[in-house]
Amino acid sequence: MMPDEKGLREAVDAWIRAMEADDAEKLFALVAPNAVFLAPGRSPAEGREAWAATREPRPGGVLFRCELQAVAAYGGAGHAWGEVALTIPAADGAPEVRVEGHTLWLFRKDSEGKWLLSREARMLAPAR
Amino acid sequence: MTADETAVREVIASWARAAEASDYDAVFALIAEDGVLLIAGLPAFRSRKEYAAFVLGAVKPGRSFKATFDIRDISVFGDWAHVWTRERSEVVREPGAAPFRAYGDSLNVLRRLRGGGWRIALAANMMAMEV
Fold first, then answer.
1. Is B102 within 8 Å of chain A by CB?
2. pLDDT at position A1, please?
3. Which residues contact B45 (CB under 8 A, 6 or more apart)?
4. What number is the ipTM of this complex?
5. Which end of chain B has the smaller Cβ count within 10 Å, N or C?
6. Which residues of A101-127 are buried (b: 16+ CB within 10 A; e: fewer)?
7. CA B64 to chain centroid
C-alpha cells in the first residue's frame, strides 16, 4: 500500500469510529476549515464552524454503521464511499429516526501532511 | 485556469448539453466503465452499464429536461479531480405532463484515462424536488 493510501485509510477509519461514537470533538478535528457538507434538500454547510453548528445534541446517542465500498488516494487528495445506516434512538419525546443510503467523502492532505475531510455528500433516505 | 480544469469543466458542460438533448449515449460516454453513481433513495450503480440500464428503463419518450449547472468548485490532483456542482432543472416526464422542478448539489470525482480524456469515476447526486 502506498504511504498516501495508508494515511487516508487511517483518516477514514478515524472518521467512521468518531461517527460511531458521535464524538463531536474527534469529528471536528478531522474536518478541514473550509470543508463543505452536502445533502439533498438542504443548503450546503460551508466551513467547519457552520457544519458544527448544524449538529444537534443527541442525548440518546446514535447507532452509525458504515460498510466502506472504496478508498482511493492520489496526489495529496482522495475519496472514500460507503453504505451507511444511521439510527437516532427516540429521546425527549421525539420518535426514533432510521435512515440509510450512501455517503461520499473527499479528503485532502493539509500543509502539515494531515488528512482532513474536505467535502461530504450524504445521501440518506428513510430506511425501508 | 489550467488546461486540466478547462478539460474537466468541458466534461460537466458536455453532460449538461447531452442531458438536455436527451442524448443518453453521450451522457453514458462521459462515465468511466467502472464509474459509480450514487443517488439518495436508490441502490448504488456500480458501473456505467448498471446506470444506463436504470436510466433507459426510467425515461419516457418525449421527456424534456432543462437544466443549469453551476460549477462551484474544481480541484485537480494529477489524474484525478474533485468537482462540486449545483444544478437546477425542470423536467416534463412525458408530453402533456406537469413540469416539476428539482435542485441540488452534486459531488463528482473525475479520472483522466490513459488516452488523456476525463471521465466521471464517482458521482453523488443530491437532487431534491422543489416544493
1. no
2. 64
3. B36, B37, B38, B39, B51, B54
4. 0.93
5. C
6. bbbbbbbbbeeeeebbbbbbbbbbeee
7. 16
Q: Is the pLDDT of residue B124 over 90?
A: yes
Residue B79, SS3?
A: coil
The partner residue sitting opposite A36, judged by closest CB among B38, B84, B124, is B84
- Mean pLDDT, all residues of chain A: 94
Minimal-distance CA residue of chain B relative to A83: B44
CA angle A14, A20, A23 (to 5 degrees): 75
Q: How many CB atoms lie within 10 A of CB B21?
A: 11
pTM over 0.90: yes
Interface test with A, best of B38, B71, B73 (most A CBs within 10 A): B38
C-alpha cell at B125: 447526486
User: What count of residues does chain B have?
Assistant: 131
- When pLDDT is averaged across residues B47-68 and rounded to a whole number, the result is 91
Bridge-based pairing state of the strands A77-88 and A97-109: antiparallel
